[in-house]
Design brief:
By secondary structure, the chain is of the alpha+beta class. It is built from 14 helices and 9 strands. The chain has 3 domains: 162 residues; 61 residues, no CATH class; 148 residues, 2-Layer Sandwich (Heat Shock Protein 90). The strands form 3 sheets. Strands 4-6-7-9-8 form a 5-stranded mixed β-sheet. It has a two-stranded antiparallel ribbon with strand order 1-2. This is Histidine kinase.
Length: 404
């Protein structure tokens, strides 16, 4: 809902209530007017105008400039007409004008529609009309004029600030949505395209011949794509195939594998999904999996993202823990969350290495693990002691959905 929409609704109510007040005030003092029929004619016109336009100030689209000009004209006409239908004694005594405080609605409409500048113009015109009606700048008249002038300009300024804040918030939300989409695409690229390109580069270099040239081209594209994903922080390098191999070794990750070969990305069905069924294919000679004896259910999208984060953690184990390193996956089913712990017995991660890897364009932990869990409303805690391995705890709250 727009921040100014409540102001338009309040203005609609103000106009209706102040019309009732003006009619009651006129009826109460009817006999005291010098020409009560003229006043009654104006009040009839004002009532008809309100009956036809009461909802014109319910939204900025309906409240047009032409309507505001007509509304303000009717208010000014009522103020000036008071000098003709009321007695000089009552006017000098400070009697209310025919439209009374209904006039403020016209000024407030200008303030909400056009900001403090329109409010200044409208309140100035009302102030001049009131001074003409009184014939002299009496103390109470000056007091009322200043009150309307200051309050309308203040409201107009507040409306302008509210609109600017709303635009800023909308822009921030757009940037946040674009950033989340960029991270999602980066995770997909990281888990698929980048790993395949890195594998082609390594296999091509090992085979030699034409395959080496194909591997060199794959390495070039892998580095350029990783640079794009990382936001341009890692410049692409050019030169010999050995330099491409060096860059690919710095940036690439292995394709997830199990005891029977590559583990395809799971495609869970719609509705609740058993997380254990998605994690079980990772088990093998070097990876142990343990979980409850019953199904651990999550929404399909959340379960798929959790399984992908586990796969990314295992990729890092295979890549960085060295040959012969073992990994353990522990699945826990808590009342309010699903927890998956991935632990290895590798050399651990040196202090500051994750920050350096992110600057180099290696987004395995930043996007494929932490980014996924953040989008699910969960958390990814990483504990690593040099020489004692690494432990990653992934926590997904119940009811999580991708993109939340």
């Amino acid at each position: 809902m727009s921040v100014e929409l409540p102001l338009w609704r309040a203005l609609t109510g103000y106009r209706v209530l102040t019309l009732g007040y003006a009619l009651a005030l006129f009826g109460f003092n009817y006999e005291e007017y010098a020409h009560p029929l003229g006043g009654a004619l104006y009040m009839g016109v004002l009532t008809l105008w309100m009956a036809l336009t009461w909802n014109r100030v319910s939204s900025p689209e309906r409240c047009t400039k032409r309507f505001l000009a007509a509304d303000l004209t009717i208010a000014l006409a009522g103020v000036l007409l008071t000098t003709l239908v009321d007695s000089p004694a009552r006017i000098d005594g400070g009697a209310a004008t025919l439209p009374s405080i209904w006039t403020g609605g016209a000024v407030l409409g200008c303030a909400i529609k056009g900001g403090w500048r329109w409010a200044a113009v409208g309140s100035t015109l009302v102030a001049l009309a009131n001074l003409v009606e009184r014939g002299s700048p009496a103390r109470d008249t000056v007091h009322n004029v200043l009150l309307v002038w200051v309050s309308s300009i203040a409201i107009g300024y507040i409306v302008e600030v509210a609109r600017a804040s709303e635009r800023t918030l909308a822009r921030a939300l757009q940037i946040e949505a674009a950033t989340r989409e960029r991270e999602r695409l980066a995770r997909d690229i990281h888990d698929g395209v980048l790993q395949v390109l890195a594998m082609v580069q390594r296999r091509g270099t090992a085979l030699g011949g034409e395959a080496a040239e194909l591997g060199r081209m794959a390495g070039e594209q892998e580095i350029a794509l990783r640079t794009l994903v990382a936001g341009g922080l890692l410049p692409a390098r050019s030169g010999t195939p050995e330099r491409y191999a060096e860059d690919a070794e710095l940036a690439g990750l292995a394709v997830p594998t199990g005891p029977a070969g590559p583990v395809p990305a799971p495609r869970p069905p719609e509705g609740p999904c058993d997380v254990a069924a998605l994690l079980a294919p990772h088990a093998g000679p070097d990876v142990s999996f343990a979980g409850p004896g019953t199904a651990v259910l999550l929404e399909a999208a959340a379960a798929a993202e959790l399984a992908a984060a586990v796969g990314a953690a295992l990729d890092n184990v295979r890549k960085h823990a060295g040959d012969g390193a073992r990994a353990w996956i522990l699945l826990e089913d808590e009342p309010d969350a699903v927890i998956v712990t991935v632990r290895d017995d590798g050399p651990g991660i040196p202090d500051g290495r994750l920050a350096d890897a992110e600057r180099e364009g290696r987004m395995g932990v930043a996007l494929s693990i932490r980014g996924r869990l953040r989008d699910l409303g969960g958390s990814a805690e990483l504990l690593s002691v040099p020489g004692q391995g690494t432990e990653v705890e992934l926590r997904v709250p119940r009811g999580s959905e991708t993109g939340r």
